[in-house]
Each structure stands twice: as structure tokens, then as C-alpha cells.
Amino acid sequence: MMIVSLPYRAIELLMGDRHYGPGLDIWSVGCILAEILLCQTGRRQPFFGGDPENPSKTVLAYVEEIFYIMGKPTDETWPGLCKLPNYRTYVSGKISSAKAHKEQGDERGFLRRFFRNGIGKPADSKYCLTESFFEMLGGLLSLCPKHRVTAAEALQHPFFTKEKPVPEWHAWHWALASADIPRGDEARKKNNDEDEARKLLKQLSKEDVGTEEAGDKTNGGKAKAVLEKWREQAEKRQQQEIKRTNSMKSAKAPEELPAGWTKHWSSSKQRFYYHDGKTGKNSWSFPSKS
Questions:
Q1: Between helices 131-140 and 107-117, what is the axis angle to 10°?
Q2: Which region, left, alpha or beta, applies to residue 232 given φ > 0 means left and ψ of -120 to 50 means alpha?
Q3: Tens digit of pLDDT for each residue in 100-134?
Q4: Plot region of 12 (φ>0 → left; ψ -120 to 50 → alpha; else → beta)
Q5: What backbone torsions phi and psi does residue 245 show, to the nearest 5 degrees?
Q6: 8 A C-beta contact, residue 109 and residue 38
Q7: Which distant-in-sequence residues (6+ apart) come within 8 Å of 6 by Cβ?
Q8: Gap between the Cα atoms of 138 and 58, Å rounded
Q9: Residue 132's Cα: distance from chain center in Å?
Q10: CA–CA distance from 1 to each of 5, 17, 18, 279 (Å)?
Q11: Is the pTM above the cut of 0.85?
């Protein structure tokens, strides 16, 4: 019996390794994180899903896409790879042409290339991905399971602990976001409305990797407009972070909160809110002592 859905199945399982561990879940987390980035730029499919018009459906297709994006491991970068049961099963021109790893940790460089110069460039343009991000995602998607980071190591990575803005949990925000998710007829209508945006994103991706054919200047101009819009959004987020920093610096002396209450900053609303650890409720106004 095979475990884990195919789009999130770790490479060691695809290679037939029967001695696996928690690294399977870490690989899936890496797939989901990368998928979220691509979905936010209009590419709504699994990270190793292949061409949207001809998506990956077989195990071979997923192995091909993994090696194409992440590079092809060798017995030096993944000790014991050649002894895995399915290693010689996957034979195709795409796998043969995939660039091989030269040393352990090459996944970081391949991911950087994918997001900086490849299909994933719209995500880099929109979110200004950092070297710390590529290092962290490369650790999650390390092809050799023994070199893959653990959950604890990932949570302590500088991408989460040092880069600004740092992650924060807003239960109320996700409750509202869930209510706003379109369903049924509304979802179908939204999908139709997004068709034009997806076409522009696809055109932008083609231009970024230099594969578009000359002559379609209208779509090319629209795609450039989308890229410019993303850059403006990135600048806006940077200004919001400056505003947050200045607000925290100019804050008055620490307020004396009731027992169990803590004060947090909301990046989405650009203001402080208060959280009751006992009830789990949040409040925009200062809690009264009662």
C-alpha cells in the first residue's frame, strides 16, 4: 500500500525506499509551501504538477518534474540511491537531461534558479524571496532524506525567527478569511473572472524564461503591467513594515494588562490588538480589569 497523495509524495517513496520516517511529512510541507507561492501568482496546481495544460498524472511524470526543478541526485549526494528498488525504473529523456547535483545542498541553487529565472519568477517578483527562504525551502525539499531538516530545525530557521515581518497567528483573521472563500456558483464565477489574469500570468512566465514567440506585443505589455503592479505591492508592504517599526518605537510605556492578556501587532490591520490566553478571544480595545 502506497502512502501520501502523489503530488506530495516524497522522492524516497517514489524510489521504492521501504525505510522511511518523519522526513516524508517534511517533504510534503515543502511542496505545500512552494505551491502556496505559485497559487498566489495564478499557477493553481501542485509544485511538481508540471505544465498546467498537460499536468503530471503518473509517478514517472512527477519524478521527471522533481529532477527538472530540484536537480538530479547522485550516489555521492544521496548515499545508497543506486541501491533503491525503483532507481533504474524511471527512464526518460527528461530525466537523462536533468542537471546532476555536484554536492550536498545543491537543492538551494536549483530552487533559486526556478524562482529567479524560471516559471516561479512571478512569485519572486511579488514577494521578493530571500536567500534565507531558498535555504529553508531547500532543506525541506532535500532529495536525500538523511539531509532533510526536521520540523524543529525548520521552525528555528532564520527565515522564521529573524526575517521581518516575523510570523504571527491571527485566529480572527483566518475565521474571516474562511468565510470569504467563494463556494459553489460563486467559486465558478470567480474562476471565470480569473481566466484573463491566468493568461497574463502565463504570458509573463513565458517572457521571463525567454520562451515566448515575438509578435504578441499587446499581451506582453499587459504582462509587464502585472509585474509592475506586484512591484508596487512589494513596496507597499515594505512601507507598512516601516510604519509598524516606527509605531512600536513611539509606543508609550508598557501597559499593565490584566492577567492572561497579551499585546500583539496585526500586520494586516497595522495596529495593536489584545489576546486573552484563557478564552482565546481577541480585542482591538484595551481590556478592562474585571
A1: 120
A2: alpha
A3: 999 999 999 999 999 999 889 999 998 899 999 99
A4: alpha
A5: -65, -45
A6: no
A7: 59, 62
A8: 24
A9: 13
A10: 12, 13, 11, 43
A11: no
Mind listing the domains of the chain with CATH numbers? Answer: 6-161 (1.10.510.10), 194-250 (no CATH)
Angle between helices 185-193 and 195-209 (to 10 degrees): 40
CA distance 148 to 17: 15
Q: Give me 72's grid cell.
A: 538530479
Beta strand residue intervals within 12-145, DSSP E: 50-51, 54-55
CA 233 to chain centre: 18
Residue type, 51: D
- Give the start-end residues of each E strand in 157-219: none
CA distances from 241 to 51, 166, 237 (A): 36, 11, 6
Check if the beta carbon of residue 27 is closer than 8 Å to that of residue 11: yes
Q: SS3 of 161, please? A: helix
Q: What is the DSSP letter of 144?
A: S
Q: Give 277 or 168, the one with higher predicted confidence.
A: 277
* Other residues' Cβ atoms within 10 Å of the Cβ of residue 50: 17
